[in-house]
Design a protein that fits this description.
The chain is an alpha+beta fold. It has 17 helices and 14 strands.
């Protein structure tokens, strides 16, 4: 197939998948009001791959195929820079609001290719599976998600000690075609709008939990697989009052596996607890890079909205300027993190060129996003509680009043009302609150990340400098 068009993407979602929300089955995902606008925005981004203006920035020839840069394994700084350009385009078109936008999990597939030799330590077929799956995703331009969280179980007991073994996804038996799995896997954000999911655990597996130590890929229409969605924020969202909700709700979901066959060729880790525990870290090299660039765009949106609203309100006093400075500061610091990751890029064992990421960069992004929400609230205060909206301008009874009293110093009233709606949707809506929760916990508990930063960072030079001073002759 090569790089997809928007039409191909939308049609591909009509594959018989079992999607449920609020006790109802959703028969046609791309036309359902809870998904239609988000699917449409993604389709428009896929169409850019074929536009004269963006085709070269978004697609590349690779092994005789025209594929998305999202799936391209870079081997040089120049190729990494081209990859960054594509990530930035996807992020820009979604305003940084979709944490699970298609580029992110595509980058996990690139990481899977990079990890193939490591996976092959458990058996040659697993390395072959990783390489073949990346090829399959790249040449078919698949939209992927990943499902990695065990959700409703007794946290005081291990997976193998649960009173109901099916509470956590596990292998129930083997067949010549592949293992049969049963149970729940959560955090499958974007699953209703994806083609396939990478499925693996995000918590360690003990040595006696081999049946729970499996990493694989599965199509969204696999027999026995059900997708259960949270509330569809976009379903009843007025695009003029909830403009981000209406266009970028990626919908979080739980995957329920009722004796689902996983073909052997889609299995990457099988009954290897140690490898299952390392799987996400091993494949997340470029995924973490995509997240960092996407979050940079999200922070730029915060800053842009605040700067415009301050300008249109004439709010140029010291307090407002200080708060605007905070938002611009967050953007510049995160941009510096991206630059540092690129300057210190390295060649992986597989020969690919990868940014050198630190969890400290991700923590900086999490904290910056938290601060951006609070800063926006402090700056805009009660104006975030929307009364009039652009939809009111057409009302014969109140339209003239809204036109007159809601303009402020904006070029026109409609732009002012729309910008206020964007600001409120960023920090005041269910969508905005969910996005910030996702931002904070996407990579796990921040405190756990801080512990890993200490454990994985060479701190010897930090200590040695102080020790040298302590050992000097303080008399001179």
């Amino acid at each position: 197939m090569g790089a997809r068009t928007g039409k191909q993407y939308l049609e591909s979602l009509r594959d018989g998948r079992r999607v449920f929300q609020g006790g109802r089955r959703i028969e046609d995902v791309p036309t359902h009001p809870g998904f239609a606008r988000t699917a449409g925005r993604l389709a428009a981004a896929y169409d850019l791959q074929h536009s004269p203006e963006h085709a070269r920035a978004m697609t590349v020839d690779w092994e005789g195929q025209c594929i998305s840069w999202s799936y391209f394994p870079p081997t040089s700084p120049e190729e990494l820079a081209s990859k960054r350009g594509n990530i930035e385009l996807w992020s820009d078109r979604t305003l940084g609001q979709m944490g699970r936008y298609p580029d992110f999990c595509a980058e996990l597939a690139v990481g899977l290719l990079d990890a193939a030799d490591w996976l092959g330590q458990a058996g040659k077929r697993f390395a072959e599976n990783a390489r073949a799956y990346h090829w399959h995703c790249a040449v078919n331009d698949l939209c992927l998600t990943h499902a990695l969280n065990d959700q409703f179980y007794d946290r005081s007991k291990s997976a193998a000690q649960q009173p109901d073994p099916d509470l956590i996804l596990h292998v129930v038996r083997e067949t010549p075609e592949g293992p049969i799995v049963r149970g729940l896997r959560n955090l499958a954000t974007l699953a209703p709008l994806s083609h396939e999911s990478l499925v693996y655990p995000n918590r360690p597996r003990e040595a006696d939990e081999q049946d729970y130590a499996i990493c694989f890929a599965i199509p969204m229409n696999a027999r026995g697989l059900s997708i259960i969605c949270r509330d569809l924020y976009a379903e009843h969202a007025d695009p003029e009052r909830l403009p981000l909700t209406a266009r970028f709700d990626e919908v979080d979901a739980t995957l329920m596996f009722d004796d689902v066959l996983v073909p052997w060729e889609r299995v990457f880790v099988y009954r290897e607890p140690d490898m299952a525990a390392q799987f996400h870290r091993r494949i997340n090299i470029w995924g973490g890079y995509s997240t960092l660039l996407r979050l940079l765009v999200r922070l730029e949106v915060f800053a842009g909205v605040a700067l415009l609203l301050a300008e249109w309100s004439g709010n140029s006093g010291p307090a407002a300027t200080e708060r605007l400075g905070r938002l611009v500061q967050e953007v510049e610091v995160l941009r510096a993190c991206v630059g540092e990751a690129e300057r210190n890029a390295y060649r992986t064992e597989a020969g690919f060129w990868a940014p050198r990421l630190s969890e400290a960069y991700r923590l900086q992004g999490i904290e910056a996003a938290d601060r951006a929400v609070r800063t926006m609230q402090d700056l805009l205060t009660s104006s975030l509680v929307l009364t009039g909206g652009a939809s009111d301008l057409e009302n014969a009874e109140i339209g003239a009043y809204v036109e007159r009293f809601f303009r402020n110093k904006a070029p026109n009233t409609r732009d002012h009302l729309r910008l206020l709606a964007v600001a409120a949707d960023l920090v005041q809506s269910a969508f905005g609150a969910r996005n910030q929760l996702y931002e904070r916990l996407q990579s796990g508990e921040p405190d756990n990340m801080r512990r890993r930063v200490v454990a994985r960072t060479d701190t010897s030079a930090l200590k040695e400098r102080v020790l040298r001073f302590l050992h000097e002759d303080w008399e001179n």
